Amino acid sequence: MPEDIKVKNCQYIDLKQVVDEKDGVLSIAESNREIPFEIKRIYYIYGLTYPKALRGLHAHKALKQVLFCVNGSFKLMVDDGLNKQYFYLADPNHGIYVGPELWHTMFEFSDNCIILVLSSDYYDEVDYIRNYEAFLAHVRR
Ligand code: TYD
């Protein structure tokens, strides 16, 4: 069993899975079903060959996202301003919902890591909080 999640706006996501035995496995994500929002944008992160690569280092004011590791592995840290939680992602069928107002970082990527992100809205830099002190002020307002 995965450990309890103590940060707000964060949850485990399990996709629908169809196992075709020796012909492989299908993982299925649909808007407002497995994914708790309407998906407007998909992006993926790869080429993570630098051992000390660090991504994220921001929070979103309103954006909702679900992160999957569809190849390899990485670690995710989420921080709601009160609590921090660490996740190890290595299974394409299990993702993490990262909702609004969560400072998050991604690190310890395996060489072959591919991160798939499903997002509730289009890219908008105005929705980002990229300074940790500003993030704390935002969540404590
Ligand atoms: P960022 O969201 O900070 O990446 P990560 O969370 O993976 O570390 O984005 C990195 C850069 O890419 C930043 O300059 C904004 C740009 N970007 C877009 O133009 N469109 C997008 O959809 C995303 C996710 C990023």
Beta-strand content estimate = 35-45%
CATH architecture classification = Sandwich
**Gap between N and C termini, in Å?**
35 Å
Helix content: under 10%
**Do you know the CATH topology?**
Jelly Rolls
CATH homologous superfamily identity? Jelly Rolls
The tally of beta strands, per DSSP, is 12
The number of helices is 1
Structurally, how many domains make up the residues? 1
Radius of gyration: 15 Å
Shape: globular
Ligand catalogue: thymidine-5'-diphosphate
Structural class: mainly beta
Average residue-wise pLDDT:
97
CATH class: Mainly Beta
Low-pLDDT stretches are: none
Query: What's the main sheet like?
Result: 5 strands, antiparallel
Strand order of the largest sheet: 1-9-6-11-4
Give the helices and strands as they follow along the chain. EEEEEEEEEEEEH
How is this structure best described in words?
The protein has 141 residues and is mainly β. The chain has one domain: Jelly Rolls (Sandwich). Helices cover 6% and strands 43% of the residues. It contains 1 helix and 12 strands, in the order ββββββββββββα. It has one helix spanning 132-139, and strands spanning 10-14, 16-19, 25-28, 41-45, 55-60, 65-71, 74-79, 84-89, 94-98, 103-107, 114-119, 128-129. A hairpin with a 4-residue loop joins strand 7 and strand 8. The model has no long low-confidence stretch (mean pLDDT 97). Bound molecules: thymidine-5'-diphosphate. The site of thymidine-5'-diphosphate has 7 residues, from strand 4 and strand 5.
